[in-house]
Structure formats: C-alpha cells, structure tokens
Design a protein that fits this description.
CATH class of the largest domain: Mainly Beta
Radius of gyration: 21 Å
Strand content: 15-25%
Helix content: 40-55%
Largest sheet: 5 strands, antiparallel
Strand order of the largest sheet: 1-8-3-6-9
Distance between the termini: 55 Å
CATH superfamily of the largest domain: Jelly Rolls
CATH architecture of the largest domain: Sandwich
Structural class: alpha+beta
Number of domains: 2
Number of strands: 9
Order of helices and strands: HEEEEEEEEHEHHHHHHHHHH
C-alpha cells in the first residue's frame, strides 16, 4: 500500500480564520517600551541584533523576565502586557508588527498557541529569505513600504506556524489543534473537518480519513487533541458560526452550512457551548470590538 500524500494543514484554517499583520515599529528601541494588553491585539517582534530583556508584569504562564542574547522571534498570539528593557548604550534593532487574529479570542489558532513563543531565528528553516526581504523593506522608506512589510510579516508568521506544527513539544504546545495537526494521521481527519464542517461526520468516517480503527482513532484523538472527536467537531462548527455571525450571515444559512437540521438546532448547541444565544453573543462581541477600537 503506497503512502498517502501529505495534506495542507494550514491553508484551510487560515482561509477561514485570517491573521493580519500591521507594521508597528522598525529601528532602535531605547529605554523602556511598553505594550499594553488593553490594546486588544497580539504582537510579532523580530530582534535583529543586540540584546534585550523582556518583562511580563502580572502575566500568567510566562516568565516574569526573559533575557534575549541572539536574534529572536517573539510571538504573542493574544493580548499580553509586556515591556522591553534595552541597554541604553548598546541598544537593540527591532522590527515589530501588531497581529490581528480574526475572531479575537474565538480564533482557533490564537486559542491553541501558548501566550508567548520566543524562538531564535536560526531555528526556523527557510526564514532567512523572508527576513532579508522584510529587513530591506523596513530599512528605508519606499512606495508601498507598509503594505509590503505587512505581507512579509504574515509570511514570517506562516513559516513560524509551520515550524510549530513540526516541533510542538519544543514550543511547549499543550494538547489541542496544533498537536492534532502535528500527528500525520489525525491531521487528515482534522483537515477534512476543517474543509467540510457541514458533512455528516461519524466516528467511523473520521477514523477512515485517518486510516485508523475507530477505537485507536478515538483514543489517540483524545490523548493528542485533549477532547473527543465529537466535541472537537462541535467546537469547530461553533467557532465558524461565530465568525460568520460577525460577517452578517443569518442563522438559517449557517445551520445549512454547518450540518444542523434547522436554525433552532444550531441555536441550542451554540447556547450550550457559549452560554448565550447567537443574537446575544453577537451583540456582546460587537460591543467588545468597539471597546477594543477605542482603546487602540
């Protein structure tokens, strides 16, 4: 039996839950630089040269202080207050971007990643070319510089995500989406669900996608992903429903798209998962978006 070809583990995910980067700083940072969680977005920092000490006042599950002594990527997928302390004589050279995960806290990637990933640039294969282009764009002002830098930051993020899928243990990734996509057999079932969430997915069909028996698939899925296949499918559908509600799609169309018999069935599952009806959830989500925009 010939081996199955690899699957694209990221494209379907990122097409449904986009991540945008916005250049926020380039050049030297002197003294103390403060990044407030109240701004409501993540960050991707590239330390190009120099040394840096980072502190996380009041942060949970992150080092109180972190000393960087080599070129490093710092990824904060969710809002987290952090401060850069730079030696005033030596300085540091930075390129930084805000990260806007579509759906905010509901974005599956933002939820699956740890609050901080600090990774030496030398660890990520293929990063040199993208960083060379990024640095060239940020070193001097040219037409379209900001747009070009934003897109290149997104390329850097994509390469970092690829690395995380191949090295979840080294990055300290907890059981969930990333670890599931890192397991080749489970990845086939997960990608199938991501691509066709409205299909009538049974345990048997998902196990067939993975090329495993139902029992082995169910046990492996629970161990690696941290929940049952049925719970993951429901969570994925509800995350998609939240994203589509933000875009103005009706519950009726969502029920058809996501495999529910009628709008009432979707609303019941939605309320069970979120604690709110779709209408109340959307009202609260829009209020949070307005608050974040005001803070930014």
């Amino acid at each position: 039996m010939s081996p199955q070809p690899p699957v694209d583990r990221l494209s379907g995910l990122l097409e449904r839950f986009r991540v945008r980067a916005q250049l926020s700083h380039t050049g030297a940072l002197c003294g103390l630089s403060h990044f407030d969680a109240g701004e409501g977005h993540g960050h991707l920092h590239v330390l190009r040269r120099g040394m840096l000490e980072v502190s996380h006042p009041g942060g949970r599950d992150v080092p109180e202080r972190l000393a960087l002594k080599e070129p490093t990527l710092l990824l904060y997928p969710r809002p987290l207050t952090h401060r850069f302390h730079n030696p005033p004589l030596e300085g540091s050279d930075f390129t930084c971007a805000k990260l806007l995960f579509e759906g905010g806290a509901s974005n599956p990637l933002a939820r699956a990643l740890p609050p901080l990933i600090a990774l030496p640039l030398s660890r990520v294969d293929g990063l040199d070319a993208a960083l060379t282009l990024l640095f060239a764009e940020t070193d001097r002002v040219r037409c379209g510089q900001r747009l070009m830098a934003d897109r290149l930051f997104e390329v850097v993020l994509l390469q970092l995500l690829r690395w995380l899928l191949d090295h979840p243990q080294e990055a300290g990734i907890q059981p969930g989406l990333i670890t599931g996509l890192s397991e080749p057999r489970l990845a086939r079932a997960l990608v199938a669900v991501h691509e066709a969430p409205g299909e009538a997915w049974t345990l048997e069909r998902l196990a067939d996608c993975a090329g495993m028996s139902r029992t082995v698939f169910a046990n492996t899925f629970r161990e690696v992903v941290g929940q049952t296949p049925a719970d993951y499918l429901t969570d994925w559908r509800i995350m998609l429903a939240q994203a589509r509600l933000r875009q103005g799609q009706s519950i009726k169309l969502l029920a058809e798209e996501l495999g529910y018999a009628n709008p009432s069935a979707l609303s019941r599952v939605f309320a069970a998962r979120t604690g709110q009806s779709p209408r109340d959830w959307l009202k609260a989500a829009r209020g949070d978006e307005l608050s974040a925009e005001s803070a930014g």
